[in-house]
């Protein structure tokens, strides 16, 4: 498929106590939270909206990390700092965390999710101090986005 015709997807990385938040769509696939941007909607706005719709988390900060092109989507990947109690909502049937996901569920991680999480590890290793500072400021002051 030509890159031009691939859907534009906003993809969220949200780190929690038990790892990166993951959503089970109920379609035999586990993904990072996110989804397609609506017409006229930026992918940043879509990331914030989709996170709230799928997990009930409220974003307090979001930064662009990198672009990733999968077989079916053109992803803009964002690192979001959010608060609230994660609850599966909308098209998310269940939530998991990368550090504690059961083996049978880990086998259902999409190839794009695996690749994006690997690329994030590299970015995180390079910029951990920036991510920590952002998290501390946002969560200390509960800055609204």
From TrEMBL:
Keywords assigned: Hydrolase
Annotated Pfam families: NUDIX (PF00293)
Cofactor(s) essential for the protein: Mg(2+)
Stretches of the chain forming a coiled coil according to its record: none
InterPro entries the record matches: NUDIX_hydrolase-like_dom_sf, NUDIX_hydrolase_CS, NUDIX_hydrolase_dom
A GO MF term: hydrolase activity
Nudix hydrolase domain ranges (all copies): 8-80
UniProt KW Hydrolase keyword: yes
Key word Hydrolase present: yes
Name assigned to this protein: ADP-ribose pyrophosphatase YjhB (NUDIX family)
Organism the protein comes from: Tolumonas osonensis
Record lineage: Bacteria, Pseudomonadati, Pseudomonadota, Gammaproteobacteria, Aeromonadales
């Amino acid at each position: 498929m030509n890159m031009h015709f691939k859907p534009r997807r906003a993809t969220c990385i949200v780190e929690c106590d038990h790892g990166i938040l993951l959503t089970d769509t109920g379609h035999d696939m586990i993904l990072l939270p996110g989804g397609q941007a609506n017409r006229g909607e930026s992918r940043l706005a879509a990331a914030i909206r989709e996170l709230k719709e799928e997990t009930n988390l409220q974003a307090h900060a979001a930064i662009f990390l990198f672009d990733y092109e999968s077989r079916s989507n053109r992803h803009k990947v964002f690192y979001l700092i959010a608060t609230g109690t994660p609850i599966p909502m909308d098209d998310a049937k269940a939530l998991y965390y990368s550090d504690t996901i059961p083996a049978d569920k880990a086998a259902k991680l999409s190839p794009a999710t695996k690749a994006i999480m690997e690329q994030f590890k590299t970015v995180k290793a390079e910029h951990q101090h920036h991510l920590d500072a952002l998290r501390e400021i946002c969560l200390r002051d509960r800055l609204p986005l």
